[in-house]
Amino acid sequence: MQMNGAQAILESLKIENVDLVFGYPGGAVLDLYDAVYKAKFPHILARHEQGAVHAADGYARATGKVGVCFATSGPGATNLITGIATANMDSIPLVCFTGQVTNPLIGKDSFQEADIVGITTPITKHNYLVKKVAELPRVIKEAFFIARTGRPGPVVIDIAKDVFTAMLDFEYPTEVKLRGYKGDFTGDTQQITDVVTALGKAKRPLLFIGGGVTLSNQTELLREIVSSTGVPVVSSLMGLGCIPAKTEGFLGLVGMHGSYAANMAVQKCDLLIGIGVRFDDRVTGKVDAFAPKAKIVHFEVDKAEINKNIFAHYPVIGDLRWSLPIFKEQLQASGRDYCGQFADWHKLVVDMNHQNPFSYTTNSQYIMPQELIDTVSELVDENTIVVTDVGQHQMWAAQFFNSRNPRQFLTSGGLGTMGYGLPAALGAKLGQPTKKVVLFTGDGSIMMNCQEMATAADNDIDIKIVLLHNHVLGMVSQWQRMFYGKRYSQTLLSGKPDYVKLAEAMGLSACRIEKPEVLKPELEKALNSTGPMLIDVMLPGNEDVLPMVAPGAQLDNMVLGGVEG
Amino acid sequence: MKKYILAVLVDNKPGVLTHVSGLISRRAFNIESISAGYTEDADITRINIEVSVENDRELEQVVNQLGKLIDVIKIVNLGLVDSIVRELVLLKVRASKESLADIRNIVDIFRGKIVDVSPENVVIELTGSQGKIDAICEMLAEFQIIEIARTGAIALSRGPVPVKNM
């Protein structure tokens, strides 16, 4: 069918089942936006390109679908960078369309020109510059295929402005032909058999789960493996929700701010089974002293992750959709009573967890941040999606929010992007309109993309923004308190933005909670109200996130805190 | 440090070299040389990368990270198979009537060629291993080397099997 490049993009998106795009118009994408107008293509106008890309990311995390965003050339495209890098670090599938200056102007330092393929090469799974309209359908087909298969990730398609208006005979390819990428990641079954053998000999095995379990939708299978073997579980930040937080034998977050039991279990175990993890330094602490008594198993789709940070004695290279079903089958076929085999070890770590839970001391004058998360967790239903920004509140949310499902706890794990939360929460709500969406943010993070309150108000996107307001850049000030002699360099937010007024000026409703005795009733009222709302909760500024493993220290070297167990 | 020559077959498309060189720099891999050229297949480019690595684990990382690039079709480490390694160098050396004979002698011993001559200089073409090239440079230093252009190492395996079928 004859159409122009802009129409071909929208036709391709329909075929890829894209039902919503986030973006921001500009000179180089005028023709694309004209096509959006004519086709009435569902589109959410963010107030900053960074908001658009984080929203697409939140949408992708909440739904499991590919997130899509549009931006114009030059500054529009460079404003996407933080969002693309965020998605890349957490393996989130995105396809970002950016306009480029017209073909004859490329390379001439033209108005609003930036080399987006060059700039995004280190932070994308793949990228394209499309200079000929005939290439568009193939490129889009490949981009979606690359973004969603294997280890997912962001793909950028940079399109010269004249391509949008050039005519083509549109035909969407039915298959992808890439010589260097198959998207099919099955591996060597023997590697799984070796793990089963190793587990048979183990006395103190431990599962370490991560974002790969969510990305591959293997939660159910993982839960079956956990319950049938009695192997205790620790989780990375990205793996939260795959095992319901209150499950006995689930020791919670591991690493820098992990639970006492999770970190001690890693140091004591004799077989550490990593599933969909990448052994980030925030998990391992001192690499040489990580899991010193254990042989390491690594189930992983990305071959380059094997032996990158931690040497794997038993690598299982392949998609978890391939490996976990076989693992489960082989465990069953072995006929062993794993629960009996590991009963003593299971009891040891569960008792350790009961004796050393995440904890805090309440105060009659102040609302404690952990108490706030706890209370929200109590008040919302089990399907509520929680989105966080980055900093202390993020760690408290990871420690205290009762995540029960995958795609329930959305957070910028790898890149640690302040400003991620608000737009991501909007994307999550648009992707899952029937679920309640709660954003935990701080008075540092919220200001980094606070313009997106206008997006929430204009589109009546019903999210609840819980602002942990402590007048400090909390995580950095915690490090300054612990490691820099309490020299609070540039971390004290003594300024006076009134967040209630700010939210109201943007068109949101808002309230402020200051006293512990009214926390629960006021929160309940606010969380059950209709429409987007900001809840400004005043907190003390000197609370630490604990336990804490100092950077570069080994995991059993923790600063503990809270109430003695 | 150990050196290996990787034969990297990639799609002959714009942007591929950006992807490969960008990856090498952001992963902080040490490379001695990189060169690229067309191959017997019109749509495949061969990139020859000479890498220096501390150990096998680092080598594994280089190969696996390169392998992740969508436009990389195949990587073979020619350092692990019996192969022929060559590098081409062009040398511009100061020369005079008096020194020309001495220079020619040295070039002959190294089986190089003088490909250009002027009253003040000669240009020498030489193919060989890096050791051989380093040696001739040392010998010619006393005449004053004005300029050097080297291609970096390229390699082919011995026997009839091409890299794409390995």
Summarize the structure in short.
The complex is a heterodimer of chains A (565) and B (166). In chain A, 38% of the residues lie in helices and 17% in strands.
Describe it for me?
The complex is a heterodimer of chains A (565) and B (166). With 565 residues, chain A is an alpha/beta fold. Chain A folds into three domains: 2-169, Rossmann fold (3-Layer(aba) Sandwich), CATH 3.40.50.970; 189-355, Rossmann fold; 369-542, Rossmann fold (3-Layer(aba) Sandwich). Chain A is 38% helix and 17% strand. In chain A, strands 3-2-4-5-7-6 form a six-stranded parallel sheet, sandwiched between helices. Chain A has a six-stranded parallel sheet with strand order 11-10-9-12-13-14, with helices on both faces. Chain A has a six-stranded parallel sheet with strand order 16-15-17-18-20-19, with helices on both faces. The longest helix of chain A is centred in the N-terminal third of the chain and has 15 residues, at 49-63. Chain B has 166 residues and is of the alpha+beta class. Chain B has helices at residues 16-26, 56-68, 97-109, 130-140, and strands at residues 2-11, 30-38, 44-53, 72-77, 83-94, 113-117, 121-128, 145-150, 154-157. In chain B, the strands form two sheets. In chain B, strands 5, 6, 7, 8 and 9 form a five-stranded antiparallel sheet that branches. Chain B has a four-stranded antiparallel sheet with strand order 2-3-1-4, covered by helices on one side. In chain B, a hairpin with a 3-residue loop joins strand 6 and strand 7. Chain B is elongated. At the A-B interface, strand 6 of A face helix 1, helix 2 and strand 4 of B.
Assembly classification: heterodimer
CATH class of the largest domain in chain B: Alpha Beta
**Helix tally of chain B?**
4
Distance between the termini of chain A: 70 Å
The unreliable regions of chain A are none
Category by helix and strand content of chain A: alpha/beta
Topology of chain B as a string of helices (H) and strands (E): EHEEHEEHEEHEE
The shape of chain A is globular
Query: End-to-end distance of chain B, in Å?
Result: 26 Å
CATH superfamily of the largest domain in chain B: ACT domain
Largest beta-sheet details of chain B = 5 strands, antiparallel
What are the segments of chain B in which pLDDT stays under 50 over at least 5 consecutive residues?
Answer: none
Task: Give me the count of strands of chain A.
Answer: 22
